[in-house]
Amino acid sequence: MFAARVGSIKFYLEPHTQKCLREELKQDTLVVGGFEVSPVSNQQVDYIVTDSKGSILAKNNDISNGKFTFATESDDIFEICFISMIPLRHIGAPHEILLNVKHGVEAKTYEELGEAAKLKPMEVVLRKLEDLSDAVVHDFVQMREREKVMRDTNESTNSRVLHLGIFSAFWLFGLSYWQVSYLRRYFRSKKLIE
């Protein structure tokens, strides 16, 4: 998963329902989101952004459009929920919701950064490319670490399965030897074999 990924999604929210979208993000990731909700009379849509611990990062009631921004403090799963509510005894219609979420390098506004640092347009582009390359290198380092953990888990599991197989083979061999010995003694005691 690249940190420079941009997500935009359009979906329909039925009356008296809730739709939630989740994403796992790394520590110190800037998240910028925008949304538009189609208007429907006598209905309202609320949204809430939470982390896995239930902490509220952004929230608003009776929305039509808006933005939210937050920075992650730790590696966590974040969730944005849209909730449709209508008054009792009203027939509702679905809302169309357009959600655009950017995080990582794509969430930064390089134009403002360039103006603040008095950078030339080419320097702003170079700064953005530098951040993108840093994000790619960081993602490859994370992938390498995950690959190492998965390889260690795979080798540990392989070792355990091998030991279980050897134990099972000895156990079955011992059980079959005991069964043959028992049957031999039984048939000898009944004088069926010599």
From TrEMBL:
It holds the Pfam family EMP24_GP25L. One of its GO terms (cellular component) is membrane. It comes from the Eukaryota. It is a single-pass type I membrane protein. It is found in: Membrane. The chain crosses the membrane at residues 161-180. Coiled coil: none annotated. Keywords: Developmental protein, Membrane, Signal, Transmembrane, Transmembrane helix. InterPro entries: Emp24-like, GOLD_dom. Belongs to the EMP24/GP25L family. PANTHER family: TRANSMEMBRANE EMP24 DOMAIN-CONTAINING PROTEIN. This is GOLD domain-containing protein. It comes from Ranatra chinensis.
